[in-house]
Every structure is written in structure tokens, then in C-alpha cells.
Amino acid sequence: MLLIHCPYCEQTLPELEFTYAGEAHIARPDVSGPVSDEEWRNFLFIRTNVKGPHYERWRHSHGCGRFFNAVRDTVSDRFLITYKAGEKRPELSDLPEKST
User: pTM score, two decimals?
Assistant: First the structure.
């Protein structure tokens, strides 16, 4: 079972408390002008599929109900860091070393 740290509640709880909400830091196209079908398609459907650290969005659905971001290693399934929504995206070089 995964243990996830909620940066708002300051608790580390089982994954059953949380809901995955997709890739983090996806920029919505500027809709003040025309948006091409390709730009809209990319926003809606195209996501990275990395092997290693991946920026994700999660929700503490059975707790405070707030969204937060996390960096999870897709190989080891280990959470490297969680941080509040709206905070600056951490650089991968600043994250803790992966455990073997």
C-alpha cells in the first residue's frame, strides 16, 4: 500500500484516502483568441508518460478535500515529495535520492 503525505493536513496516510487527479502543471491554452484543434487536443489528451519522477496532481478526498501536487517515481512507485497547489514546481535535481 502506498503512503501519501498531505501537505495541508501534515499527515501521511494510506492511498485509499486520496484520489489521483492526473498530470500536474498542465497549462490551459489561451482562449482569449482562436485556439486550433491541435492545441485543444494537446491540452485535453496529450500527456507525458515518463519512466522515473513524474509530476502528478492528487486530492485528499477522504480528508481535507484539497488538491495538491506530488512527484512520484513511476519505477519504484515511491512519492519523492508532495507540495501545496500553487507552489513552485520543485526541480528534479533538488529532490531526495531514489532508494534502491
Answer: 0.84
